[in-house]
TrEMBL record:
InterPro entries: Metal_Hydrolase, TatD-like, UCP005295. Belongs to the metallo-dependent hydrolases superfamily. This is TatD related DNase. Keywords: Hydrolase, Metal-binding.
Amino acid sequence: MDYIDPHIHMVSRITDDYATLARMGCVAVSEPAFWAGFDRGSVDGFRDYFCQLTEVEPRRAAQYGIQHFTWLCINAKEAENVELSREVIAMIPEFLDRPGVLGIGEIGLNKNTPNEATIFIEHMELAIAHEQSILIHTPHLEDKYQGTRMILDMLCGDSRVNRDRVLVDHVEEHTVAEVLDRGFWAGMTLYPISKCTPDRAVDMIEMYGAERLLVNSAGDWGPSKPTAVPDLIFECRQRGIPEATIRKVVYENPIAFFSQSKNFNFQPRDGQQAPAV
């Protein structure tokens, strides 16, 4: 089954991972801007990173028949540096018209601090001003529920935010219902340690259905598995989930959400039709 990984940090993966993803059926990836394994110290460091995301990674992916899309921001882990964050936010518009740039993300909270909230709101303002979609990072472990509620309240507190253009990622059993009930898209991240597992993700599909629900691997610097989405497909089949439901979650829903971005120029494999959105 063809699938799209809507949240995977390929800058942290070796080129062989692209080959493995292609063999497993991955036809496209979406890479949010995030932490580089260390805190960067200058706006020029982020400018180089954005060049990597918009120039280098699409070329690496294309060698294996995978289409690469990206998102831009300064992430929540580095948002405590408010001065640098504002310099980066001011620089981002230089890149918004580049091919494959889908919007602002992954923005959100890390430790739920006032500085993180300030920079989150300023990213929101940037997205609104430039009519961009938004991809949200919710905190980990014990901070997740409180942080998710804080994020949803900030989003819902601004009537200019189009909730249909916001994907709230890293949802778990205790956050997914509120994300969906408030009208946002929800992303389940499959991790070997924290976040979610394939069997828990299938539980959520069974409980909430496939509408506005996506699944991803994150595939970042820490313990992670870039082929986690095929693991989800396997678990779905083991549980008897209909093929149409699986395809909706791993292929059609990413296309439906990403198609709201003007730079989403996805090309299905030869002989296939893109789903109607």
